[in-house]
Amino acid sequence: MKRWIMLLPLAVFLLVAVFLYRGLFLNPAELPSAMIGKPFPAFSLPTVQGDKQLTQADLLGKPALVNVWATWCISCRVEHPVLNKLAEQGVVIYGVNYKDVNADAQKWLKEFHNPYLLDIRDEEGSLGLNLGVYGAPETFFVDAKGIIRDKFVGVIDEAVWREKLAGKYQALVDEATP
């Protein structure tokens, strides 16, 4: 009996070592989302530019990127010029201003230009919570029927768009084209 008790620390150590070894091969940039394959969550929130109420029905009809951003997010400032270029090229982008002061968001969009066809004000973070947002920036790929098809966490720069995301967006556009 004493031998089994003496082997217990070794067994615990080996179990912990297996979990740590497995962790070496995980990509920390990949944050899983339970929302993939599910409809965009129901919401009723005002726009950043005014008090018009938007709902998930406003997102239907075209494939789009839904970009979660904030003025307090340094990475969002890096990403914003790329989003403006994408919008100029015809990429449909909806913005969710996440846990932000609305006056700051209005100033930001005036100063840095507004790439968003719709700009949703999520001051309390309720929509972000329902989407499973960890922080900003995060971008969701939503098909024409309002189903979340993919998610990207981090800054979208030109290389990331070209190498990882453009094909995903184009596939949604092609799928929606009869």
Automatic annotation (TrEMBL):
Membrane-related topology note: Single-pass membrane protein
PROSITE patterns the UniProt entry points to: THIOREDOXIN_2
Keyword Disulfide bond: yes
GO biological process, one term: cytochrome complex assembly
GO cellular component, one term: plasma membrane
GO molecular function, one term: disulfide oxidoreductase activity
Cellular localization per UniProt: Cell inner membrane
InterPro entries: Periplasmic_diS_OxRdtase_DsbE, Redoxin, Thioredoxin-like_sf, Thioredoxin_domain, Thioredoxin_ResA/DsbE_sf
NCBIfam families assigned: dsbE
Family from the record: Belongs to the thioredoxin family. DsbE subfamily.
Protein name: Thiol:disulfide interchange protein DsbE
Species, as recorded: Pseudomonas fluorescens
This protein's encoding gene: dsbE
